[in-house]
From TrEMBL:
Protein family membership: Belongs to the beta-class carbonic anhydrase family.
Function of the molecule: Reversible hydration of carbon dioxide.
Protein name: Carbonic anhydrase
Keyword flag Endoplasmic reticulum: no
Chain positions recorded as Zn(2+) binding sites: C92, D94, H148, C151
InterPro entries assigned to the protein according to its UniProt record, in alphabetical order: Carbonic_anhydrase (IPR001765), Carbonic_anhydrase_CS (IPR015892), Carbonic_anhydrase_sf (IPR036874)
Top class in the EC scheme: lyase
Record EC number: 4.2.1.1
Cofactor mode of binding and number, as noted: Binds 1 zinc ion per subunit.
Protein source organism: Funneliformis geosporum
Length: 282
């Protein structure tokens, strides 16, 4: 159900252009007078609030970098050395679902890959490359597939309209619909799109688990878990879909089991034991 802002709440969530201009100018010229927490706005500014001025973005960046440096002088020099994230995130490209923001983690904590409707296609070299780098080189321990309710890609896949080249990308979601047709169509009409969003996330979790990349890590005895979440745009809450795959015993069917006789070709065995310090700058 869509909420309508009352005049009181609307005033609380918006700023005048002069207020935004003052905030940015104050941050740039006298950032030392502000605490780190004061520079993190409770409600982020919008591009329109700064008159779509790119210079304002650069000014905000300088203010942010200065505030971080004053709080943690070694922060950026440490970040420049290497990255050590424990999570790789496969999410939707939708601008309203920024991975680090919605879980409140900082730079260097999540390795992120996003595309339309959070797809993981076994023939997509882009997604496969991200997964392989994250698992074999960064040694992540958690893989999160995150979709979101109200996903335009899912809604487009449910329709019979033409949308251009993207229709080929969304074809996989139509297949998810067809496989789960009885489940989806037994839901109330207004809930069918949400159901497909969740089923789509679960399918991508299964797709990732079926890769030799993941199964080779399991064969090496490594901790590597795959999780499925979905984000609700109207309240900012992540929903744990409780689809968690922690090993080959959790695969949806034995047909997806890969006998990793050559799993030693991945990761440290392929590049020696010093790769951790030299290959983490993707």
């Amino acid at each position: 159900m869509e909420q309508t802002l009352t005049p009181k709440s609307e005033k609380r969530l918006t700023r005048t252009r002069s207020e935004v201009r003052e905030m940015i100018d104050d941050n740039v010229t006298s950032v030392s007078k502000s605490s780190d927490s004061e520079l993190i706005l409770p409600v982020p500014i919008t591009f329109s609030e700064i008159e779509e001025n790119l210079q304002r973005l650069l000014d905000s960046n300088k203010a942010w970098a200065k505030s971080i440096t004053e709080t943690k002088p070694e922060f950026f020099t440490t970040m420049a050395q290497a990255q050590h994230p424990k999570i790789v995130w496969f999410g939707c490209s939708d601008s309203r679902v920024p991975a680090e923001t919605v879980v409140q983690l900082g730079p260097g904590e999540i390795f992120v890959h996003r595309n339309i409707a959070n797809q993981f296609n076994h023939a997509d070299l882009n997604s496969l490359s991200v997964l392989q780098y994250a698992v074999d080189h960064l040694k992540v321990e958690h893989i999160i597939v995150c979709g979101h309710y109200g996903c335009g890609g899912v809604l487009a896949a449910m329709s019979n309209n033409q949308h251009g080249l993207v229709d080929n990308w969304l074809r996989n979601i139509k297949d998810v619909y067809w496989i789960n047709k009885s489940t989806i169509e037994s839901s109330e009409p207004e809930k069918r799109a949400d159901k497909l969003v969740e089923l789509n996330v679960k399918q991508q979790v299964y797709n990732i688990a079926a890769t030799s990349i993941v199964q080779s890590a399991w064969a090496d005895g490594r901790k590597l878990e795959i999780h499925g979440w979905s984000y609700r745009l109207d309240n900012g809450i992540l929903n744990d879909l409780e689809v968690d795959i922690k090993g080959e015993q959790d695969l949806s069917d034995h047909i997806y089991k890969v006998y990793c006789r050559n799993h030693h070709i991945h990761g440290s065995h392929a590049h020696g034991h010093n790769h951790e310090h030299g290959h983490r700058h993707a």
